[in-house]
Design goal:
- The chain is α/β, with parallel strands linked by helices and about 250 residues long.
- It folds into two domains: about 120 residues, Rossmann fold (3-Layer(aba) Sandwich); about 120 residues, Rossmann fold (3-Layer(aba) Sandwich), CATH 3.40.50.
- The chain contains eight helices and eight strands; from the N terminus they run βαβαβαβαβαβαβαβα.
- The strands form two sheets. The protein has a four-stranded parallel β-sheet with strand order 2-1-3-4, with helices on both faces. Strands 6-5-7-8 form a four-stranded parallel β-sheet, sandwiched between helices.
- Helix 7 links the parallel strand 7 and strand 8.
- Helix 4 crosses helix 5 and helix 6 packs across helix 7.
Length: about 250
């Protein structure tokens, strides 16, 4: 059986997003049983879904595992699945679609690693139980987005003094309010987690446009910012695990 794998990402014009996806695809191909791995975008920038599907089918594969590479279940994921299944009727290649990258313990571990790494890099030696954490997510009208991020927040709470979350856009609390909530707890150290897959415009610019003035106006003395989730061994393992779930069921 010849199997391919296609990641469907939301889409970004930033070259870093494409570079990260290429690294992830190469890593999956190296350790998974795939003759072909690639990525495409739901929107914003080509290659779009039709481009990705067409390229995969030309690889002489029998099965195609399609991975919605999103941190939240919701409208974007539904749109991606709907769009991709339109092409099933035009090919003999069998499509299977995985769950998105949400509601999984690996994400808790990944965020934990980002926090620990940031503390080590900045030579912060106080116990984790004395550290406060603020996770910044994108924001969505779909209630499942809140549920998915709350899953990560709840999974971290036993290890840290306080764990809160806020949103870049659409939902409340926004970043300014998120900093105010943290400020009320009078943190000794606050670690801010950018809960984003790529180093796109949101991570490079949009978050900081709100975050930096909010921090400047706050009384919090020590704040540290983690890297976005990006290319990480744990994320690659999660993608492969999601893929195997549907492949073994079919």
């Amino acid at each position: 059986m010849k199997r391919g794998l296609l990641l469907i990402d939301r889409g970004s014009r930033e070259r870093e997003a494409s570079e990260e996806l290429e690294i992830i695809c190469n890593a999956i191909k190296a350790r998974g049983n795939y003759v072909f791995t690639d990525y495409c975008f739901l929107e914003v920038e080509p290659p779009y879904i039709e481009d990705g599907i067409a390229k995969c089918i030309k690889q002489n594969i029998d099965h195609l595992t399609i991975v919605p590479y999103f941190l939240y279940p919701g409208k974007k994921v539904k749109n991606a699945v709907t769009d991709v299944m339109k092409f099933q009727k035009n090919t003999k290649v069998k499509f299977v679609v995985t769950k998105p990258m949400s509601m999984h313990k690996t994400l808790i571990n990944l965020v934990e690693n980002r926090i620990s790494t940031t503390l080590q890099e900045n030579h912060v030696t106080i116990p984790k139980k004395d550290v406060d954490v603020l996770i910044i997510g994108h924001g969505s009208k779909d209630p499942n987005a809140q549920i998915s991020l709350d899953y990560v927040v709840d999974g971290l709470k036993e290890n840290y003094r306080n764990v809160n979350r806020c949103w870049l856009e659409i939902e409340q609390p926004d970043i300014v309010e998120g900093i105010k909530i943290c400020e009320k707890n009078n943190p000794q150290v606050l670690v801010i987690v950018f809960y984003f897959l790529h180093e796109g415009a949101h991570v490079k610019t949009d978050i900081n446009n709100d975050l930096l003035p909010a921090l400047k106006n706050s009384t919090i003395k020590k704040t540290y910012i983690t890297k976005h989730l990006g290319v990480d061994e744990k994320m690659i393992e999660l993608i492969i695990e999601r893929a195997k779930e549907v492949e073994n069921a079919n």
